């Protein structure tokens, strides 16, 4: 990643880390890679899996390129517009 100039993105899991925190971090990372066009690597290890929904979201992202219902309609429209 470093040699190719990619930004490494990680989430910091704490005791109080919630599903909402996860979604906000995932939104930030996908915005950076998509709308801002910054080549990135999302580094996530099995020790960071606090909830099964984390794995489901990553699976959806890898399989379809999006996470269902991650962005409300207005935010989604803004991200799509920024990516153009």
From TrEMBL:
Residues annotated as signal peptide: none
GO molecular function: dynein intermediate chain binding; dynein light intermediate chain binding
UniProt-listed GO biological process terms: microtubule-based movement
Pfam families attached to this UniProt entry: AAA_8
Domain of life: Eukaryota
Domain Dynein heavy chain AAA module D4: 1-83
One term under GO cellular component: dynein complex
Protein name: Dynein heavy chain
Organism per entry: Tetraselmis sp. GSL018
